Amino acid sequence: MKSARELFEPGSAGILPASKLLALLLLPLSCLMVLLLLPFLLLSIYPSTEIHKEAKRTVAFSDKLNPQFWFENVDDPLPPENYLVDDPQRVEKWYWRNPFHNFTFYVIGIADQSFDRQGLCPADVFNPNGGWNWAVSKKDWLRLPFISFENDRISTYFGWRNGGNFGIKLNIHQTGPPEDPH
Predict the structure, then answer these.
(1) How would DSSP label each residue in 92-134?
(2) Backbone phi, psi, residue 178, to 5°
(3) pTM higher than 0.85, yes or no?
(4) How many whole angstroms separate alpha carbon 134 and alpha carbon 118?
(5) Contact at 8 Å (CB) between 112 and 105?
(6) 159 close to 145: Cβ distance less than 8 angstroms
(7) Residue 117: strand pairing partners
(8) CA 149, CA 125: separation in Å to the nearest integer?
(9) pLDDT digit of tens for each residue in the chain (182 aa)?
(10) What is d(CA 55, CA 57) in angstroms, rounded to the nearest whole number?
């Protein structure tokens, strides 16, 4: 087995050639670019509908620059009454459920602004009929893409959702009947 020093010496057989290393770095970036550009391509090819979303709240620009604001939840700062009723740490668990709420909704999101959304099912995160959904949220010159897929095995999305907030999700569902624990 080679030591760390031997692995990082020039010409060592343990190091990937620069071209392979570059390819490994560029592959995830290329996939991300395809995900981001695909909704724009679909808008030009497939028929779509457009909806208008009104802002429900106003957030000051100075709040968006404050990192403390990023870690708060101005929409639901306290858990609902029926959330973990008997748990003494229910407020902390509510906070940790989504610690970047303000960041995804108001800093990198446009949930505090009125915007138009155009796509296959622009009012929904997932296509009500299953399969693919895509949309683009439009605010002035800004275009924010969204793509999702759902079937009986997987639910996934990436981009700016129907409320103007950014999100990423990947849920893999169990298939078939649950196993008997006995």
Answers:
(1) HHHHHHSTTHHIIIIISS-TTS-EEEEESSTT-SS-TTSEEEE
(2) -65, 150
(3) no
(4) 9
(5) yes
(6) yes
(7) 51, 137
(8) 9
(9) 555 455 445 555 555 566 666 666 666 666 666 666 666 666 666 666 777 888 888 888 899 999 998 888 888 778 888 888 888 888 888 888 888 888 999 998 999 999 999 989 899 999 999 999 989 998 888 888 899 999 988 999 999 999 999 999 999 888 754 555 54
(10) 6
- H or E element, residue 19: helix 18-45
How far is CA 79 from each of CA 5, 76, 98, rounded to the nearest angstrom?
52, 7, 12
- Residues with Cβ within 8 Å of residue 169, at least 6 apart in sequence: 155, 156, 157, 158
Please tell me what DSSP assigns to residue 4: H
